[in-house]
Design brief:
Elements lengths: L3 H17 L4 E7 L5 E5 L11 H10 L9 E7 L7 H7 L6 E3 L6 H16 L5 E5 L8 E4 L4 E2 L4 E2 L5 H9 L23 H9 L2 E2 L1 E3 L4 E3 L20 H21 L8 H20 L9 E4 L1 H8 L8 H6 L8 E4 L16
Helix pairs in contact: 1-7, 1-8, 2-5
Length: 351
């Protein structure tokens, strides 16, 4: 039944994740009277010339990226009749983009509608993240971009007009890097914040821009999450961390669905083939520097098996639980630690 393909598929997924880690896909919504509907833009030269100048500029900023440009942009052109961007969001419900932004004239009501939509699609295992202007969400897949006075020396941009730039920048950030202190060389100035105000904004889950006296750059690459728990800790506030978590989840789901579910018998040997393949996947990510070396584990979840079997499992040993008949159910448990990027440095110098 093709069991060896499970390990091959996991390794292929791991290599693809590492290879595509320096690029990503961005979804952009604009309002226009021309070119209605969906478009795939593999490069900036494919932006429809019929769009307004402002919309073309908005899309062009997306392609600026960071270390690399985005792999591609999925564009949806809608109009003023599209209440709360319902048509546009229905399209992106069937697309797997990394970051999604609304139109450059996004309203507060539309931003709130996008957050509600995002919670629904992520509950259905989407991995989309939103970049929204000044939107307090306390939700890690939402980036609350909050900056003012951005200018290239000629034009002053609003926060909403620069969301596409942020989405493209994150899509172009390699997995092994953080976008903290990523420069925006096209900007000559912003509304400058003192350190106390900047720190307070970051603590409030806002993505801000700072000017260090030489250049404009991102402050700290955080999302809007501010309420952390023991199970959902501070690491989830990092944009980089959520990207890795999303990619691991996507790789596991796709590989298991494509090469395992419905295709093999639920025996101990087959379960262990899946476990071994998953461990090899984690090891590949550790070697690539995405995960901390030696931090990842994956095995049969004997406690979950015990709960599933009920009273019949009261006298069973762990080894018996591992071999037990669990019908169509497979219970696994694992963990890993994401390799964070260097963001804080303390140096003690004695003279």
């Amino acid at each position: 039944m093709g069991l060896p393909s499970i390990d091959i598929s996991f390794q292929t997924a791991a290599q693809a994740t590492i290879a595509m880690g320096d690029k990503g896909y961005v979804g952009v919504i604009v309002r226009d009277t021309a070119q209605a509907g969906a478009h795939y833009l593999p490069r900036v030269g494919k932006i429809p010339a019929e769009l307004t100048e402002d919309n073309r500029a908005y899309l062009t900023r997306t392609f600026l990226g960071y270390i690399n440009p985005p792999k591609a942009v999925y564009l949806y052109v809608t109009d003023a009749e599209d209440t709360n961007l319902a048509k546009a969001l229905a399209y992106f419900e069937t697309q797997e983009v990394d970051y999604l932004v609304g139109p450059p004239d996004l309203s507060e009501d539309e931003a709130e509608a996008m957050v509600m939509w995002l919670k629904e699609v992520r509950a259905a295992h989407s991995h989309i993240k939103l970049v929204l202007p000044g939107t307090v969400a306390d939700y890690d897949p939402v980036i609350d971009f909050d900056a003012d006075g951005m200018t290239d020396g000629e034009t002053v941009f609003t926060t909403a007009e620069y969301c596409s730039r942020m989405a493209g920048l994150f899509a172009g950030t390699p997995w092994t890097m953080s976008a903290t202190y990523a420069p925006l060389p096209e900007l000559t100035d912003i509304t400058r914040l003192d350190k106390e105000t900047a720190d307070a904004a970051i603590d409030a889950g806002k993505l801000i821009l700072i000017h260090d006296g030489r250049q404009v750059k991102i402050g700290r690459a955080v999302n809007s999450l501010t309420t952390t728990t023991l199970d959902h800790g501070a690491i989830f506030q990092k944009i980089k961390a959520l990207e890795v978590i999303d990619r691991v989840d996507a790789d596991f789901r796709a590989t298991i669905e494509d090469t395992f579910i419905g295709k093999v018998a639920n025996t101990y040997d087959n379960r262990m083939l899946l476990v071994t393949a998953g461990r090899n996947y984690f090891h590949t990510l550790e070697t690539a520097g995405l995960l901390i070396e030696g931090s990842s584990t994956l095995d049969i979840d004997t406690e979950a098996v015990r709960d599933y079997l009920g009273e019949a499992a009261d006298e069973m040993s762990d080894d018996e639980l591992r071999h037990a008949d669990t019908g169509s159910q497979v219970f696994l448990v694992g963990k890993f630690t994401i390799a964070d990027a260097i963001e804080d440095v303390t140096i003690r110098i004695t003279v």
